[in-house]
Design a protein that fits this description.
single chain, about 725 residues, 29 helices
Length: about 725
């Protein structure tokens, strides 16, 4: 093939891939409209779920088939480009997401070569063919060099390639391609059906019970799909069919059956779905593959291995489990809904970024990008998961995992013959809403479960929870945190005392101190923190805030600066920095005597910290408050700008998070104190709009009352007294 011919081939493949993505975007619009119909505050009917599943399934299978056609063309072009024709019949067979029917136009390609005959010269030919397919895929310019684990090229240059459609990487645990990853035996996936069947049987009946089976041969071959076949015979079973016939009667021994069940239990513990602590105040998920994408597929995958039921796709496996009476109708609906939700989120995220990019947010989105003014203009830094869909998925997922952890496949004739109480689903929803910073909605859900007693009679609710919930401590902590975040400090204090009395950990301590703080009992909060004798930057931060409120300014600054310094150091454990933010070589004399960080340079120093955390942002915010109340408005403004920068990095500019409203409010405070009343007025109004979106238009949250008072002060300073009085009266009504 000439250079010009190769260029034309590559251009054609690029255009085909672009067309697949364009068509998938069009198809996804229908699923988008259905996804937006899910609600956070009520049950979603089965018709809506069925409609959503049907829509996403069609999109996934259409996309998968289109990607199979693309790969078929790549292999065909590779075969025709080699001087020699194939020395024997062969088939390229997909494993992974293409085989499961869950492919996206950005999925990694995992595939094997099944060959009719075996000899050194034949394998040499197929090695060359494999390398030529890698070359064709690499020519699409969507493969990062770093992804291919080429050690010699590491740190030579910035790898700015798009992370898109490519072969499976060459790192340890990857390399599911014909030539392997260089770690497994060579030619691992250039095999005859007989050789592959022999390896399959050997692995199946000699499992290591101490290791998860996620990456073993039997697991990888659970789903297989033909991509391309070269055959010189008119009528003959395909090589894939030949292989499947050879393994159909290979059954696992008793040890393997036990290991399969253990694998399911390991995955229930390992693959999470719930938001974690990084999602507070409407954050975004870091490990989305474990939390969002993988679990529904992994669950179906585990069940198919456990019972030896093999479908042509994950969707068909779910249908086969139902038809063979392994699962109930309701369990089938739950499984397919969770699978559809995971596929939809994954596909939408990649299409949004036009890349294999996992950045997403579970925060509400500022729809038109205008409410927050110029500071938070519209951005495309995240894809936003419809919160109602996310809540609906977790409402099913969390009770499902709870049930499966105690499920015994040998004693239950049909999976799903269980009855979880309505409260299990409500608590799961409340847990999700809380984890995503939707505290008001989470509290409403908890009130649906426990009624008026939740606020009026905490001790009664605590007794009820401990009598009825297996995870009583977790539930009481959830109640305490929701009440605290919703400013119901007195009720929250009772729950928080109980939690801290049972388990005196850092989170429980911070919440208990926060309740005293909310009740303006600053000395009590300090006593609790001092008595705990915990060494943590979180404690330093609280101590600094409380000393500030008690007007102990020197102690306050010392604690606040210490907290920020420690957060910065924790975020860069592998790298040390000097006073100016420059990296220090390990073992150098500088490393042993880092200049103590002064408050004036804290904002500048953290610019060099590679791992921004919400803790750093919180500490910067606390320092902003400190300098504002000290009258150092320019310094406060610098910290506030840094806070906005950090929040934008964490959540995206267009994420409707509490931090956005608070940052705007602080900016307004600084402008007002510098006699910029007109500018402050608009920013206060923007901030108030966001708070009412977060807490609800009729909410009586304390944050809204404070902001209304600030707005009143602003109008008063501009001599607009009548409007100022209205704002003060409205604030008083909220209080």
């Amino acid at each position: 093939m000439t250079f010009d011919e190769q260029q034309n081939t590559s251009k054609g493949l690029v255009e085909q891939l672009k067309s697949i993505r364009s068509k998938t975007r069009v198809l996804l619009k229908q699923a988008d409209s259905v996804a937006q119909q899910f609600s956070t505050d009520c049950d979603n009917d089965s018709k809506l779920i069925t409609k959503f599943v049907s829509s996403v399934k069609d999109i996934s299978l259409n996309c998968t088939n289109a990607m199979i056609t693309l790969v078929e063309n790549i292999i065909y072009e590779s075969v025709t480009s080699l001087i020699l024709q194939p020395p024997c019949d062969f088939s390229a067979v997909a494993i992974g997401s293409l085989a499961r029917g869950e492919a996206t136009p950005y999925s990694d390609l995992e595939y094997i070569f099944l060959i009719e005959q075996d000899s050194p010269s034949i394998k040499s030919y197929f090695e060359q063919l494999a390398m030529y397919t890698y070359f064709q895929i690499g020519n699409l310019r969507e493969t990062k060099i770093s992804y291919m684990a080429v050690e010699e090229l590491e740190k030579w240059f910035d790898d700015r390639s798009t992370n898109g459609f490519k072969i499976d990487g060459l790192a340890k645990g990857a390399g599911n391609i014909p030539t392997g990853n260089g770690i497994s035996p060579k030619n691992w996936f250039i095999v005859t059906p007989r050789q592959l069947a022999s390896r399959y049987e050997e692995v199946l009946n000699n499992p290591n019970p101490k290791e998860a089976l996620r990456g073993d041969l039997t697991a990888m071959l659970t789903y297989m799909k033909e991509l391309y076949t070269y055959s010189t015979k008119a009528t003959q079973d395909s090589l894939l069919t030949n292989f499947l016939k050879k393994i159909v009667n290979i059954t696992p021994n008793d040890l393997r059956t036990t290991v399969n069940n253990d694998m399911l239990q390991q995955d229930l513990a390992k693959f999470n779905f719930m938001p974690n602590s990084t999602l507070q105040d409407c954050g975004f998920t870091v490990d989305v593959k474990r939390q969002l994408y993988r679990f529904p597929s992994i669950l179906l995958f585990d069940l198919s291995i456990l019972w030896g039921i093999r479908g042509d796709s994950a969707w068909e496996t779910a249908d086969l489990l139902l038809s063979k009476q392994k699962i109930t109708v309701s369990f089938h609906q739950t499984l397919t809904f969770l699978l559809a939700g995971a596929c939809y989120i994954r596909l939408s995220t990649y299409l949004h970024h036009n890349s294999h990019d996992d950045r997403l947010s579970v925060a509400p989105k500022i729809s038109d990008g205008q409410e927050a003014g110029d500071l938070f203009e519209k951005s495309q830094s995240r894809w936003f998961v419809p919160m109602g869909l996310f809540a609906a998925m977790s409402q099913d997922m969390i009770p499902l995992k709870k049930y499966l952890k105690s499920w015994n496949p040998e004693m239950t004739s049909m999976l799903g013959t269980y009855q979880l109480g309505y409260n299990d689903h409500l608590l799961a929803r409340a847990q999700t809403l809380h984890g995503c910073g939707r505290y008001i909605e989470g509290l409403k859900t908890l009130q649906t479960v426990y009624g008026e007693d939740l606020l009026k009679f905490p001790n009664v609710v605590i007794i009820t929870i401990e009598a009825n919930e297996d995870n009583a401590g977790e539930v009481i902590s959830l109640v305490a945190d929701n009440l605290w975040k919703c400013s119901h400090y007195q009720a929250a204090l009772e729950y928080s005392k109980h939690v801290y009395g049972k388990e005196a950990n850092l989170e429980a301590l911070k919440r208990l101190a926060g309740c005293y703080d909310g009740l303006s009992r600053y000395s009590d909060a300090l006593k609790v923190l001092k008595a705990a004798k915990m060494n943590s930057p979180d404690i330093d931060l609280w101590m600094g805030v409380l000393h500030q409120k008690l007007e102990n300014y020197q102690q306050a600054e010392t604690y606040l600066v210490s907290a920020l310094q420690r957060y910065c150091e924790e975020a860069s454990l592998e790298q040390r920095f000097d006073y100016y933010g420059d990296p220090i070589e390990e073992g150098s004399s500088q490393a042993k005597c880092i200049v103590s960080m002064h408050a004036m340079s804290a904002s500048e120093r953290i610019r060099s910290i590679p791992n921004t955390t919400s803790d750093i942002a919180t500490a910067v915010s606390a320092l902003q408050y400190f300098y504002f109340w000290q009258g150092e408005y320019e310094l406060a403004e610098r910290y506030n700008n840094k806070f906005i920068e950090l929040q934008t990095e964490l959540y995206g500019k267009d994420a409707l998070v509490l931090a956005t409203a608070n940052a705007l409010c602080k900016t307004g405070n600084n402008l007002y104190k510098q006699n910029e009343g007109a500018k402050a007025e608009q920013i206060y109004i923007d901030s108030l709009g966001l708070l009412r979106k977060i807490y609800g238009a009729e909410s009586d949250h304390a944050d809204i009352a404070v902001l209304l008072s600030n707005l009143g002060n602003c109008y008063s300073g501009m001599s607009r007294f009548e409007i100022a009085i209205n704002q003060f009266e409205e604030a008083l009504g909220v209080y």
